[in-house]
Write a structure and sequence with these properties.
This protein is an alpha/beta fold and 295 residues long. 48% of the residues lie in helices and 16% in strands. Helix 10 links the parallel strand 7 and strand 8. It is globular and about 50 Å long.
Length: 295
């Protein structure tokens, strides 16, 4: 078996991460379950202490494991909550439709269950739309939104025909179609083992859940709801993005109370996994930017 410096480095990284994560895990409460507005069980975990509370929301066909490299860092100074949205991870799968508004209710249920009062919502990819929904539901508890590689242009002019073209490969063969869909979002510099883990994990998602969520999320761009939702949210928004897609600052600022972005050069869609140390520093910066706006 050929052992390269790259593979040794990756193994060492995951060993340290697992040891650190194990320490944080031992200090955390047991995984818990609450009930969303429609009765669906929602799994969540709580780590650390300190305000504001950071609530991490995963993206499409992912789950709370995608934040594993953030937990040891942020639980030192904050109460950290991770959530599995309905149909993902260890949460229930009883819905006939998986919508952004229902996912927002999942987040609200966990925030209310944990009695979190001063909350920064952090959402990756689809999670950016979900935290916007949750922010609209809980204006008195949410003090800011942080999108992770998301919300590049909330006025993006998507057509129904373009959406159908996007969904067709997923409907025909979800495992193959989802791998092809996600692969284009992963940086060419990503370690091959991490790349394969992401592709294998996301392509193993439940197709009915994934297709329903994708259709509802992208339909918001067709109807204009993706932008309109921010007209009702009077809190600051900051994103930490890779540079795969350009950001339309003017479009976002037409609807958001305030909007700023931090860009990681040459970063792919899964920057919190791919470049965790750099990402954590920039997420700290995003948190500080929001807190300064609230002073």
């Amino acid at each position: 078996m050929l052992v390269t410096r790259q593979s040794v480095s990756l193994v060492s990284f995951f060993m340290v991460l697992c040891l650190t994560f194990g320490t944080i895990q031992a200090q955390a409460e047991w995984p818990q379950v609450t009930t969303s507005n429609d009765g669906t069980p929602i799994s969540y975990e709580v780590y650390g202490a300190g305000e504001p509370t950071l609530v991490f929301v995963h993206g499409w066909s992912c789950d709370s494991r995608y934040w594993r490299a953030q937990l040891p860092h942020f639980a030192k100074n904050h109460r950290v909550v991770t959530i599995d949205l309905a149909g993902h991870g260890h949460s229930g799968m009883t819905r006939s439709q998986y919508t952004m508004s229902a996912f927002g209710e999942d987040v609200r249920a966990v925030i209310e269950e944990t009695d979190s009062r001063s909350v920064l919502l952090i959402g990756h990819s689809m999670g950016g739309t979900v935290i916007a929904e949750a922010g609209r539901l809980m204006p008195n508890r949410i003090i800011g939104l942080i999108g992770i590689d998301t919300l590049e242009n909330i006025e993006y002019p998507l057509s129904r025909e373009e959406l159908e073209k996007m969904l067709t490969p997923l409907e025909n063969d979800f495992r193959t179609g989802s791998r092809q869909f996600v692969e284009n979002m992963i940086s060419s510099r990503t370690d091959p083992q991490l790349r394969e883990w992401i592709l294998s994990d996301m392509s193993a998602a439940t197709p009915t859940v994934a297709l329903s969520a994708m259709n509802d999320m992208m339909s918001q761009y067709i109807t204009g709801e993706a932008a309109k939702i921010f007209d009702d949210i009077r809190i600051p928004v900051v994103t930490v993005n890779g540079d795969l897609w350009p950001i339309n600052y003017e479009a976002n600022r037409r609807h958001m109370f305030s909007f700023d972005a931090i860009i990681l050069k040459d970063a792919g869609h899964f920057l919190m996994l791919d470049r965790p140390e750099e990402f954590n520093r920039e997420l700290e910066n995003a948190i500080n930017m929001i807190m300064k706006k609230l002073e």
